[in-house]
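Section 3.1: Structural characterization of target chains.
Under the original work plan, the team committed to producing a structural model for every single-chain target entering the pipeline before any wet-lab resources were allocated. The record below documents one such target. The sequence was received from the expression subgroup and is listed exactly as submitted; it comprises 606 residues.
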Amino acid sequence: MKRILLVGKPNSGKSLLFNQLTGLRQKVANFPGVTVDVKTGKFGPYELVDLPGAYSVHTLSKDEDIAIAQINQAMADDNTALLVCNLDATRLQSSLVFALHMQALARQHNKNVVFALNLYDEMQKIGHVIDTDKLSEELGSPVYAVSARTLYGIAEFKQDIQAIAAGQKPVSSAVQIDSSPEQIQQKARDMAARYGAQADILLKNQNRIDSFMLHHASGSLVFLLVMFFLFQSIFTFAAPLMDGVEAGIGVVAEWCLSLVGEGMAADFIRDALFGGLGAFLVFVPQIMVLTFIIGILEDSGYLARAALICHRPLSFFGISGRSFVPYLSAHACAIPAIMAARTIESPRKRLITMLTIPLMSCSARLPVYALLIAVFVPPVQYLGGLVSLQGIVFFALYLFGILTALCISLLLSRTSAVEGKQTDMPFILELPSYRLPHWKPLLRRVVESGKQFIKRAGPVIFAVSVAIWVLGYFPQNGSLQDSYLGMIGHWIDPIFAPLGLDWRYGVAILMSFLAREVFVGALGTLFGIDAADEHIGDLASQLQADGLALGAGIGILLFYVVALQCVATVATLRAETGRNKLVTSVVIGYGLLAYLLALAAYQIIG
């Protein structure tokens, strides 16, 4: 199948344009460097390829290396029918610099080029008209004014680029473009001066807002409030959805059990399916709420401001403001966060950031936190229900993970444990315009996050729940103490006894090395087997009735904040760093630190 390539700067509306052309549910974010993977979608008879964003062919960061390498490889492929270069109408000069490089590269490979002058709705707001016909003549390639947000010009653009790719519509290429960097810079500057809007008009509103958002006092206060709101919302706003999911699971469980009657099948459905997998599904709404809030921060343009605000304090710990985005992304999942660290120019700071990302509390820890907080923290609410004590504890756990990551970053930056000490490049960050999120892709992304979380963790939790049920049910048909699992549990009991935990918690912790969220499913299965004669109840209530000590519960929380218990994260770290010994040391080091923290919590609190 013939391909059409879509290239452009980060944060220029390229991914949203890709969504509109293909209808695919792709991530759209208003921060440079978010798109580091190649995305494809069907576009008529063609395959549309969204290549990673880059500012220049002269790369500074690892994700730009990937982008330019992919572009060069694609341009040399005979199946590439057309290059579509996305321009940011609000930042025409910088977009044209990259576009002219791409045009020169395309002509070297005898490929046609089309320019999409995106974000044109921003020009319409200020009453500025860009003469695309004259700009097309000067560039020697068609220029289409479009807005992926409002769909302005999209219908005509779709038709024309398919016709151009098929060779049905001629493309002018008489204009010769000098490919030297100096000539390209000068030509981009001249064209932006003739066709683009004046910067002071475009940035008037943005500068007025930034004077408040980036002020050392008001900006810091807004940042702290935003972060508190982010973590508070995970618990407070998701609670009604979680209650609804839990009630729905209970109804379905009762209905299924009524169909099969008593016996081994009923025990399996109750304990393995609804006790293990069902206990995990209750926490999916929290992942969706987290994705929604982070998505708003990304799309609105605030995320870049937060990175700028954090640069000075993060510099003290040996990293930079660019580390903030991977750190915040890690609260959803550590794997894309580690990959997002490619945007950090300094190899040393990039490595330190990657090694400390696992200390950020990802969505897989949410079920563990929510379960134990529900056991020990009363649901006290303040300010009319906007703030809850459970949410405050949630925030404290996230804050503890962040502080631990910063302390370890400081330690690594002050030692020779991480190679590459060198004079770092200056911190440079493009501040995007403030924009309202594009709600439809955002809501799709939220739903997709829930689906992906279930798809990724569900099979693992199901397999573990079934294995635990089989080992815990036999050979005594439901007697947990005398089961195979009981034998294994009592063998490992000395390891966890100093933490105030019995063998059931030890088994759940060991199983969760596959994925942290397995802890909840494993406990749900274990306690389901142990109380097989009782009605299916809330797992938190079962733990309360079991008499888990406060110090032991806090110890588990601290353990999961620090311990690196995710095989996929370890594999990603290994792939990005290429160093087995270093990654192994991180896994062991975080594991020992987590155990010592849990031990101290139990010994001090009891």
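The beta strands are 3-8, 39-43, 46-50, 80-88, 113-118, 143-145, 381-382, 387-388.
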